[in-house]
Amino acid sequence: MIMVREAMKKHSKRYRSALEKVEEGKSYELLPDAFQCLLEMPAARFDETVELSMHLAVDPKQSDQMVRGIVQLPHGNGKEVRVVAFTAKPEEALAAGACEAGLADLIEKVKEGWLDFDVAVATPEAMKEVKVVARILGPRGLMPNPKTGTITDDLVTCIEALKKGRVEFKMDKSANVQLGVGKRSLGIQKLVENAETALQAIQRARPASLKGKFVKRAAVSTTMSPGLTLHETLLARYGK
């Protein structure tokens, strides 16, 4: 309890109130119970994102142990996704919901420092020219990639899926994966279904070369709340 009290002193009154609902040492074997506890915590003045965080038992330095992929959340993530499309035929991409589309003009805009978007998609043909901004887009995780389905001949379907809640996940340099599984306002049932879908997708991305345990720890939280630990038995169910 000493650690909990010390943590409480460093945060706002609302956060301290939320922290009081966290049972020290408790882990949740059922997602509905975890989300029930989260949603009983005092809400912020905005619709918080509910996040799933996982620490993986992989070596980020090994190229064959990279974990990344995409997942289509059944109820969306509640976020307005800004998509840009690198294509020689921008009209269809714009009609599908892209906020910007084009090729030479869009590349020039990125060169000048414009990065006001969340996802970039491109046709295979356009990638020959898009490569000139790889050093700008790559470090920010914005470079189109065939592994995440953002290089495709079917830009319309790709853009529509992204707008409806298709989310990319990627392990960071510390072997952590974090993604939003919806807004607090979705409610328990929809958050559970989104989180289950995300857990299954991450488990499917397990490297073939990895032996033994894949997920070391996992937790759920909202933007402004403390995290709630998920029990290893819960995680094992989605690894089958």
- Largest sheet geometry: 5 strands, mixed
- The pLDDT mean sits at 89
Helix percentage: 25-40%
**Biggest sheet: strand arrangement:** 1-10-9-2-8
Per DSSP, what share of the residues sits in E-state strands of 2 or more residues?
15-25%
Q: Can you tell me the overall shape?
A: globular
Class from secondary-structure proportions? alpha/beta
**Strand/helix succession:** HHEHEEEHEHEHHHEEHEEH
Q: Count the strands?
A: 10
Low-pLDDT residue intervals, each spanning 5 or more residues: 1-5
Number of helices: 10
Work out the radius of gyration. Answer: 20 Å
How widely separated are the two ends? 36 Å
Can you describe what's shown?
The strands form three sheets. Strands 1-10-9-2-8 form a five-stranded mixed sheet. Strands 5-4-6 form a three-stranded parallel sheet, with helices on both faces. Mean pLDDT is 89; it is low at 1-5. A hairpin with a 5-residue loop joins strand 9 (215-222) and strand 10 (228-230). The chain is α/β, with parallel strands linked by helices and 240 residues long. The protein is built from ten helices and ten strands.
Q: Which characteristics define this entry?
A:
alpha/beta, 10 helices, 240 residues, 10 strands, disordered N terminus, five-stranded mixed sheet, single chain
